[in-house]
Amino acid sequence: MSDDSQHSAPDLGMGRPHPARIYDYLLGGKDNFPPDRAAAEQGLAAAPDVRDIALANRRFLVRVVRHLAGLGVRQFLDVGTGFPTSPNVHEIAGEDSRVVYVDIDPVVVNHGRALLAKRAGVRMLEGDLREPEAVLAEAGELLDLGEPVALLVVSVTHNVTDAEDPAGILARYMKALAPGSYLAVSQMASDVSPERSAALADVAARQRTTLLPRTHAEVLSQFGGLELLEPGLVQVPLWHPDEQEKGVDLSRVWTYGGVALKA
Ligand SMILES: C[S@@+](CC[C@H](N)C(=O)[O-])C[C@H]1O[C@@H](n2cnc3c(N)ncnc32)[C@H](O)[C@@H]1O
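# S-adenosylmethionine complex -> structure
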């Protein structure tokens, strides 16, 4: 099978690696195909920390949702959600919450829909982070966009190029969302373990996938000047750590994460 850009919708692109399916393999899931496994193994060979990063990132997401639910947030828009992984946002956020999951990968969307079909207050959409107005219009069929929403963009902006302007994209979402909304972002760092992140970026470039680790200042700019909650933008194990983060080797978890409030 060749590049799926040459095919219409039914081609699920199983002939080449996809970020969601590589990530699923790293998390120990079964929703991946040979090109994804090969790409993940090449990534692991170049940067063995990648699996630590995936797991720490997922734990960060869980703590973020728990924290925001504790602050009273009842609406979540999780863009670049990945394959359903338990616990997922709706399981953490509570039964009275509304959750919209969005992913660009049709295989992720099919799985999500199959699993979530009967869940009240939960929807799975196929959409592109880089098209904020379209995503918000569809998400607004379930979410009340006049009320605060937590926008979760966790481990996705490193799949967006500088030319596509991740900060500008996120600013368009936050401009549209009500005051009291939150923005959570995590993305791979280029300045924590520079040789290893550069090695992974090289592998990704050879696989023709976009994976761009960025500096602390570059990731911070994705919040567009919004006020960050304590402890700011930090390596993800340092964001409101619980017992599981004790003893984590920070040199192996080169991913930044933070949460900001739209006042
Ligand atoms: C590394 S996974 C992160 C999954 C989840 N957010 C987490 O942190 O556990 C990245 C996900 O973003 C999705 N993705 C990549 N680019 C995207 C885009 N432009 N719009 C929507 N989803 C995108 C991929 O398909 C994949 O499922």
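# post-check
The domain at 52-190+212-261 is CATH 3.40.50.150 (Rossmann fold).
Residues 19-20, 23, 57-58, 61, 79-82, 102-105, 108, 128-130, 154-156, 159 surround S-adenosylmethionine (CB under 6 Å).
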